[in-house]
C-alpha cells in the first residue's frame, strides 16, 4: 500500500512525513492553486509536475 499526505505546506513537513514512510505529498509545497482557465490552457512550455524525493517518493501536483 502507498500513502499520500495532503495539505503539505513546507519542506520541514515533507522531511517529517518522509521519516514516517509517506510515499506522496500534495499541497502548497508542491504548488499553489491556479484559476481553472489557466489550468485548462495548453502549457506554453514543458513543465515537469513531479518532484522526486529519495527512495522514489513523488510529489504530484
From TrEMBL:
Indicate the segments annotated as coiled coil, or none if absent. none
Q: Which stretch is the leader sequence?
A: none
Q: Which SUPFAM superfamilies match?
A: EAL domain-like
What sections of the protein cross the membrane?
none
- Where in this chain does the record put each EAL domain? 1-47
Name of the protein in its database record: EAL domain-containing protein
* Organism, as annotated: Paractinoplanes bogorensis
